[in-house]
Every structure is written in structure tokens, then in C-alpha cells.
Specification:
Elements (H helix, E strand, L loop, with lengths): L1 E3 L14 E7 L3 E12 L2 E8 L5 E10 L6 E9 L5 H7 L4 E7 L5 E10 L3 E4 L7 E4 L2 E4 L4 E3 L2 E6 L11 E8 L3 E12 L1 E11 L5 E12 L5 E10 L30 E6 L2 E12 L3 E14 L1 E5 L8 E3 L3 E3 L7 E5 L10
Parallel strand pairs: 2-18
Antiparallel strand pairs: 1-13, 2-3, 3-15, 4-14, 5-15, 6-14, 7-8, 7-13, 8-11, 9-10, 10-13, 11-12, 16-17, 17-21, 18-20, 19-20, 22-25, 23-24
């Protein structure tokens, strides 16, 4: 029997990848590469990998053998994301026998058996410490023909319905020409990951010299945690990128200022119109986390202050017989200019 209250807890089943590499693009997506091991038998079989990102782009998934290239072929590939939850279980249990248990005011249990006619649209948890909830939208027909609507209590089903899983899972139908351990590489794209570089400049009292601190800020809302991952960051206009790179202004056309590294060293490569930055120290990027990785730290950076006046600022529209409407005072904008050069302790 499966008892449904307001929560279900299941043990984790997936083993951690043996190696992970993340290439994060500033357009809100990332390329995930993982090395894992599969114990295959000879012939056609089903294999699965759990703990993949919930924001995965399933049509981008690719799998290949590293230890024995060409030793298996992929016949079928499925991404399963129908996760176990009280409502999901009850949705698949419609028409099946259920046991409904409600607690009376004197503490006694009232056990009712019947058939689930309609699954709940919502389960409202009790706030008085009880483990049961109100099953809004649920309809149960008891064995004696009575109908119970929106019951308050607990519901039991005989078994877990087929097709529900505890974690997002990639499933393959493979045809292997040999049995044994096979080291594989899994690749896929996922949405929900992005990066920007942020800078903090602290000026002296005269505003001519400052200390510059740089951070790489990673945002992970992909639905997966990546432990001890090798991180690569790509800057540039990739096809799916819809926003400009947020690497700060005044640092050599959208790249990083060099400075003195604080923490992990960042190496830079350029190919075509893209810049690739590699962090040499692995990092764990958790789901629903904003992580800042130290990029640079430079002291005594010379700063030039400039005032910019836009003569067209505040210009209104000229209407016949009314003159100019909407004009106002023009105020200069203050800009701080930093030269990205070795002489200035940066480039």
C-alpha cells in the first residue's frame, strides 16, 4: 500500500557522474558533458541515467562510448519527466480501488474503501501539525455506493502506478555487441543557466585612483546540481542568444579585464567572433543557486572622470503655434574611464 499525505520521500537512485564539464553561454543556456559508466549486456536492452537537468532540451541529447567506440547503437531515446507527487499518483489511480482514512474528533480512525472517480486538483496541507490534507476536487465512490467529495484525511493506493519516476530520467534502447562495463559520454543542452561578469570599483577621495574587484556570476535554474564541474564560459552572439553580454563597460570590447587573479585563474581563447574563458579550478554549481567566482583584483587603478552632455536630451516635440513642448534643463552625465592596459595594472 502507498500512503498519500502531503509529501512523499524517496531515496536517491542515481550514481554521480565520474566527470562533468559545463560550457555556459551568456544567452541563458549551457552545454553539459558528463562521463559515466554503464554495465551493458550483449544485445538489445534498456538503460537509463537519472539526475539530468529538468530544463534539458531533449532533442540535443547525444551519447557515445569512450572505452569502446561503436560498440553499441541507439535504437530509441526517451526523456521521462512524469515525476512522483501525490497528485500525479492519484491522477493515474483514477478508476482504481483506494482506501480513505479520516481521523475523527475523538482520535479514532474511520477507514473507508472505495473507487477513485476523480483525482484532486489541489491538496491543501493542514496547519495544525496533522499529516493529512484536504483533497480539493477528489471524488470517491464507497463500496456501499456513497459519494465522498473533497475528503479530508489520508488516501492509500495499492501500488505505485506505472510510468512515474522520482527524478528526470533519460532512457535509451541500446543494441550492444558486447557485455561488460562501458565508459560513455553524455552531452545535452539545457536552458536555465547563464553568466555575467560584475565589477566593483572603490575610488579614493579624489576619484582618480581605485581598487577594482571582478566576479563571474553564475545563475543555475536548470533543475540539476553539477558537482566538481569544469567550467567554461562563452561570450559572443550565438544564434539563440537574445541579450547582450553583461561583462561591464570599458574593458576592451566585451572581454574580461586581466588584472591580478584572485582565486581561480581564468584563461582566455578567441575563435571566430567568440571568446572562451576557462576556470582552471572545478566548482560545484547547485540548482537554484547564484554563484560568484573570483575573477580579478587590482589596486591602484587610474581612473579618468568625464562629463558628457547630450545636446538633444530633453528635446520635446514642436507643435504649430505652440512652440517646443517638453524641454527641460540639460544635466551632464558622469562617466568613469579606465584604460585596460598592463601599465594601469589590468590588461
Amino acid at each position: 500500500m502507498i500512503l498519500l499525505s502531503t509529501a512523499i520521500t524517496l531515496a536517491a537512485m542515481a550514481a554521480a557522474p565520474e566527470g562533468t564539464e559545463l560550457t555556459i553561454y551568456n544567452g541563458g543556456f549551457a552545454l553539459v558533458k558528463e562521463q559515466r559508466s554503464l554495465n551493458l549486456k550483449e544485445g538489445v536492452q534498456s538503460v537509463g541515467i537519472e539526475d539530468v537537468a529538468q530544463m534539458i532540451e531533449a532533442n540535443s541529447v547525444a551519447i557515445k562510448s569512450l572505452s569502446a567506440p561503436g560498440s553499441f547503437s541507439v535504437l530509441e531515446q526517451n526523456y521521462q519527466y512524469d515525476l512522483i507527487s501525490p497528485i500525479a499518483v492519484l491522477n493515474k489511480a483514477v478508476g482504481q480501488p483506494v482506501t480513505f482514512i479520516r481521523t475523527l474528533q475523538d482520535g479514532r480512525k474511520d477507514v473507508i474503501k472505495g473507487t477513485l472517480l476523480s483525482s484532486p486538483t489541489a491538496i491543501v496541507s493542514q496547519t495544525n501539525g496533522n499529516s493529512y490534507g484536504t483533497y480539493n476536487g477528489m471524488v470517491i465512490r464507497t463500496t456501499d455506493g456513497k459519494i465522498i467529495l473533497n475528503p479530508v484525511g489520508e488516501v492509500q493506493v495499492d501500488s505505485l502506478p506505472a510510468g512515474l519516476i522520482s527524478k528526470p530520467t533519460l532512457m535509451w534502447m541500446l543494441d550492444s555487441d558486447r557485455a561488460g562495463k562501458n565508459n560513455i559520454e553524455l552531452r545535452y543542452l539545457t536552458r536555465g543557466m547563464s553568466w555575467v561578469s560584475d565589477y566593483v570599483l572603490s575610488l579614493d577621495k579624489d576619484g582618480k585612483v581605485g581598487d577594482l574587484k571582478g566576479w563571474v556570476t553564475l545563475q543555475n535554474n536548470s533543475g540539476a546540481t553539477f558537482a566538481d564541474a569544469k567550467l567554461k564560459l562563452v561570450a559572443g552572439d550565438v544564434n539563440r542568444v537574445v541579450q547582450a553580454m553583461g561583462t561591464g563597460g570599458g574593458f576592451g570590447g566585451g572581454g574580461f579585464a586581466a588584472g591580478r587573479p584572485a582565486g581561480p585563474q581564468v584563461t582566455q581563447e578567441q575563435f571566430a567572433d567568440y571568446h572562451l574563458y576557462t576556470l582552471t579550478r572545478p566548482a560545484t554549481v547547485r540548482n537554484n543557486e547564484m554563484k560568484q567566482v573570483s575573477l580579478l583584483e587590482s589596486t591602484g587603478v587610474k581612473v579618468t572622470k568625464k562629463l558628457l552632455v547630450d545636446a538633444m536630451w530633453g528635446m520635446g516635440t514642436v507643435y504649430p503655434n505652440e512652440g517646443v513642448v517638453g524641454t527641460g534643463p540639460i544635466k551632464p552625465v558622469v562617466y568613469l574611464e579606465i584604460k585596460n592596459s598592463k601599465e594601469n595594472k589590468l590588461g
